[in-house]
Each structure stands twice: as C-alpha cells, then as structure tokens.
Specification:
Layout: E1 5-16, E2 19-30, E3 34-38, H1 45-52, E4 60-65, E5 68-70, H2 75-81, E6 83-86, H3 98-102, H4 117-129, H5 146-158, E7 164-168, H6 176-191, E8 195-199, H7 203-209, E9 212-217, E10 220-226, H8 232-240, E11 258-267, E12 278-286, E13 290-295, H9 301-308, E14 316-322, E15 325-327, H10 332-337, E16 340-343, H11 347-351, H12 358-363, H13 367-370, E17 371-372, E18 375-376, H14 378-391, H15 408-420, E19 426-430, H16 438-453, E20 457-461, H17 465-471, E21 474-479, E22 482-488, H18 494-501
Parallel strand pairs: 3-8, 3-9, 6-7, 7-8, 13-20, 13-21, 16-19, 19-20
Antiparallel strand pairs: 1-2, 1-4, 4-5, 9-10, 11-12, 11-14, 14-15, 17-18, 21-22
Length: about 500
C-alpha cells in the first residue's frame, strides 16, 4: 500500500433484508487530500460512509487504517481513530446552546468536576470566529437559521482534531458567503494533513475543492479519477451509466391568465424571532408560468411561501388575490382549500413522516376525503398509492416501504405526488432539488414542465441560480425581506441575479 494512503475500504458489502445497498464498496483515501464521493441517490454512498463512521457494520469487506486492518463497531471507535463526520441531517440538540452542542460529551471541567462554562464559551467563540459566524456561544441552536446550524455542525466535527473528516452535503443549507468560508476551512484542514471525504450533488463544488473523485453506481464501485483531468460530462456518464440529454431546460409554455396576485405584503416578527421580515412585497403569477425566487439565505424566500400557505396570518398584512378575488389564508387548511400546495425546504423534518410508509405519506393531505366516519377506506387508498408511484416513477419495492428508507430524490417525488392528489392550481416549491442527484433533478424538472403545461402556476425557490435560469419563465430577487428585482428569462444571467439579490433597497 502507498505510504501516503491513510484509509482503504475494499470489497464492502451491506444488505438490509433483501435489499443489497452496497455490493462492492471501495475507497482509497490519501493523507491530506480532498476526495469526492459521488453517485446518484441510492448509489450506496451514505451506507459506505455510515460503515466508515461506525454507524453500520458491514456484512463483508476489509477496512485498513494507517496500513492496519481495523474494525469500527461504533461512532465512539471512529472518533477514537480520528474519524469525524459532518451529517447531512443535523445532529444538534435544539434546546442547548451553540457552545454546549460544540463540546457535548467532552465539556471542559473545573477542578471540582463541574462544567467550566467560561472556558467552554470562550473556546466556542474562538472556533466560531474561524467560520465568521457572528452568533453568541450562549445562543440556543433552535434560534439559529438552518445555515447557521449547519456551520455549528461543521465546526463541531472539525474541532475534534480528526485525521479524516467526512462532509456529507455540507453546503446544502449554506449561502454563497458561508460556502466560501467552508472551503477556506477545507483548504486549511488539507494544509494540516487532514483528509476530507466530500459528498455533494453540486458538480461545481466537486471541481472547485477536490483532488480526486470516487464514483459509485447501484451500490458498486465504478472508478476513481483525478479531478483535474475529468469533465462534468465524464462524471455524469459514470454516475448514471449513460449520457444525459444535452439540456435540462423544460419547454416553455405560454403563460395564461393571472392566477395569483400579492399586493403590499408585509410580515413583522418580534425581535427575538430568527426569521426574516417582509416589506411591501407585490407580484403576480400566471397559470402555466414557472416563477423563480432568488436570494441569499435570510432574504425572506421561505417566509413568503409560509405566508402564502397561511402560516403567519397574525403577523402578516397586505392582500392575496386568487383569480382576481381577495382571499383570507389564515391556516394551511385555508391554503389547501384554495388549491395551494407547499413543498417545504426541509423534506425530512417537515415534508415527510419518515417512520410511515410511502402510501401513508401520500394519503396525508386527503385523509378526510378517503375516510368514512373515523376509518380510512383502504380500498380507495391503495389504487391511489399505486397510481402515484407509477406516475412519479418512485423507485421502491412497494408502497409499504418506509419513507425514511428512500433516497432523497424518491422522497421528493413522494412529497410532490402527495400534493398532486389535492389537484392544486398553485405550487410552492422550496428548494425542490436540494440534496438530490443529477438524474433525479432531471426528473423533477420534467415534472415541473409537465405541471406548467397543464396550466398550474408554479413558484420555485432555489439557491442554485443556474437552476432558476434553466427552468423559470420569470425570476424575482429578494434581499433582506424586500423585492429587489424582476427579470424575464431572456434578460437574466447569474451576474444580474446575484447583483439584484445583494441590493438592500427595493426596485419599486
């Protein structure tokens, strides 16, 4: 073995019942390199990494660490070996402070054995300063934005003095500025000889920050390549097993009549809320139109969707009109009654019940319609489940499969399919392709195209500007709760959108 190699995983096999998640896992990691692990959802990446971090035991295969064969039966053993993991799903305690989360289980102690809080918070402040995160170490994690929580998770893992750091979708909730700070941290770790395993679906990040790339497909190792001599097309071909279409741009449709109008919407939260206020927002949406919402984290994009879904009625003012008639949206039930559907940013925390089946998740918004008295009519349910699984091309053994066992792309299709059963006219899609692979993204884009052709009005929030430019007819930009720009597809580009999304004054 090369003396510069710190880790090898060979012939890794892992099954869950009859489902073979990894059939031939392989990974070779060198000291001080940033190594991407890529593949479509369901390729086996997470399973392989969970084995390395001690969360799962392999059925077969060999793990060598610093040239010696080893067994990693638990996360504690992984930590002892110097392997740290930054989880895609945040592993933080919401009710504890930033400092308490950062040093959970390894708190500094006084001579009498009590937690030394002064030192704990001082050390936390020093660590967070390197991430340019301007929050008090005493702030409770639940009061932070998702992106800020993500940085706390990253800081927690990197503060363990690990020799291998696993980063699973670390930028999924980060702004461009926060992503830049993360990349600075990654480069600093690399210069210190720390090896980084970097898992992401964002191709531009793979080519910006990594040295080598390992590709998996259908649970098996495909290849390891040098990033500098690999193209995006080569990588996608290895990931999906064939060439994708030259463009993911759905065919544009002619916008129809105005379906939604927002007039002078304002949203004001108390000062201690960690949400964005909205100031005098006005815009319209037409049937058959895909309208994009661009902006940095904290710009108010998600809060706009929440208002349109009836979540902040008491804090909101202004008018919402559907088909020219003013409506009152005081609850999600009101929104659903007016044929509005919301695909939330956090599909696992807010969009799905992970411990229930695909079918049960699909039925959620129409349970009343499927029920006789207090009982759900299963004879009516199951044909709907089958139809939506077929229509959305959800890949799973059956509709009894738990939602938590699905890949990210299939989970997203379950959520979309569920809302389509309500026959919505207005769809609010908040980061619809976050954390899903390129193949699943193509499927989501085609779903959006099909729905717009059917006359639906679609609002899309995305942090990926190329995505908005690809699928939207018009794009609005938000900054600090204000509407700062409106652009037709033909006049928009990344520079124009980013400039408008960093303006602090309204364009009106």
């Amino acid at each position: 073995m090369d003396k510069n190699t710190i880790l090898t995983m060979q012939g890794i096999v892992k099954s869950f019942g009859v489902v073979r998640a990894v059939t031939n896992g392989h990974l070779e990691l060198k000291k001080g390199e940033v190594h991407a692990l890529v593949g479509a959802n369901g390729a086996g990446k997470s399973t392989l990494i969970n084995i390395l971090s001690g969360s799962l035991r392999p059925d077969a295969g060999i793990i060598s660490y610093n040239g010696e064969s080893t067994v990693i039966p638990s996360p504690l053993r992984a930590r002892a070996l110097g392997i740290g993991k930054i989880h895609q799903e945040l592993q933080l305690v919401p009710e504890l402070s930033v400092g308490e989360n950062l040093f959970l289980g390894r708190e500094p102690r006084t001579k009498l054995g009590f937690v030394h809080y002064d030192k704990l918070f001082a050390d936390t402040a020093a660590i967070m300063a390197s991430f340019d995160l301007k929050v008090s170490p005493k702030t409770k994690v639940k009061e932070l934005r998702v992106g800020e929580q993500q940085l706390v998770e990253i800081a927690k893992a990197t503060s363990l003095n690990a020799r291998i750091v696993i980063m699973d979708e670390p930028t999924s909730a980060l702004s461009k500025h926060e992503t830049k700070k993360l990349f600075d941290v990654v480069r600093h770790l690399k210069s210190d000889g720390v090896s980084v395993i970097y898992i992401t679906h964002r191709m531009e990040e793979v080519f910006e920050i990594t040295d080598r790339i390992t590709v998996m497909r259908d649970g098996a190792y495909i290849a390891t390549v040098e990033t500098a001599v690999t193209t995006r097309e080569d990588l996608v071909r290895m990931m999906v097993g064939h060439d994708l279409a030259k463009t993911s741009t759905p065919a544009q449709t002619s916008a129809g009549a105005e379906i939604l109008r927002v007039e002078d919407m304002c949203l004001t939260f108390p000062p201690f809320y960690k949400k964005a206020n909205l100031q005098h927002i006005s815009f319209s949406l037409h049937s058959g139109e895909v309208l994009g919402i661009a902006g940095l984290m904290g710009a108010g994009r998600t809060e706009l969707f929440e208002c349109l879904f009836g979540l902040h009625a008491r804090a909101m003012s202004g008018q919402i009109r559907i088909d020219g008639k003013q409506v009152s949206l005081r609850s999600p039930q009101d929104a659903i009654r007016h044929k509005i559907a919301l695909l939330t940013e956090d599909r696992k925390g807010q969009g799905l019940v992970l411990s229930r089946s695909i079918g049960e998740n699909i039925s959620l918004p129409i349970l009343k319609a499927l029920s006789s008295w207090i009982f759900v009519n299963m004879k009516r349910e199951r044909p709907l489940w089958r139809r939506q699984m077929e229509n959305m091309q959800i890949k799973a053994p059956s509709f009894h499969t738990l939602a938590g066992h699905l890949s990210g792309g299939n989970q997203q299709k379950v959520v979309i399919g569920r809302w389509l059963l309500t026959d919505p006219r207005i769809l609010l899609l908040d980061e619809p392709t976050r954390g899903i692979d390129v193949g699943a993204k193509e499927e989501v884009y085609q779903i959006i195209s099909t729905l717009s052709k059917a006359g639906k009005g679609i609002l899309v929030v995305s942090s990926e500007l190329p995505e908005l430019l690809d699928i939207c007819d018009r794009i609005l930009t938000f900054c600090e709760g204000r509407l700062t720009g409106e652009f037709a597809r033909s006049e928009a580009n990344q520079e124009v959108l980013l400039n408008a999304a960093t303006l602090s004054t309204s364009f009106h």
